[in-house]
Fold this sequence. Notes:
Low-confidence stretches: 1-21
Mean pLDDT: 89
Amino acid sequence: MIRRALLAIAVLAAGLIARAHPIHAGYAEADFRPASGQLEIALRLFSDDTEAALSARAGKKIRLDATAPAELDRLLFALARTGLVVKSRDGAGQPLTWIGRELKDGDQHLWIYLTCPLPGGAAGAVFANRLLREAFSDQLNSIRLSDHSTTPARQVTLLFANDREQTVVFP
Length: 171
């Protein structure tokens, strides 16, 4: 009896997994450089998810490999400015500066590079990573933050399964 119940559960679980929606996830690396007072940010997103989000925003098909570079940069920077929030410890929003982008891993991943000032340093700063959440409600994002004002650098990972902001507290 127990074996049949376990078998039934296993069959149901396998069916659910086979029909499961693919994971939507983004990853960011952020390095605070105290000498310049700048936060260097590298965002990694799945290319197909980014194309879907940009297409929905633009009202037309956007392809990372076929859209004019200047238009694509403009669209990606607008996406980053609305999806990534960086505030200094006093709560002031920090302006992002576009550095560039590149496709990697056989064009599976899009990397976007940005910087912003971070007065007061990384401890106590506030972040939100809402990238692609407007297109995918199940989008999971993370930021791996390194503060190079100490040796070795202090690090913390912030996980975002919703739109809430998080304050940096180093362990």
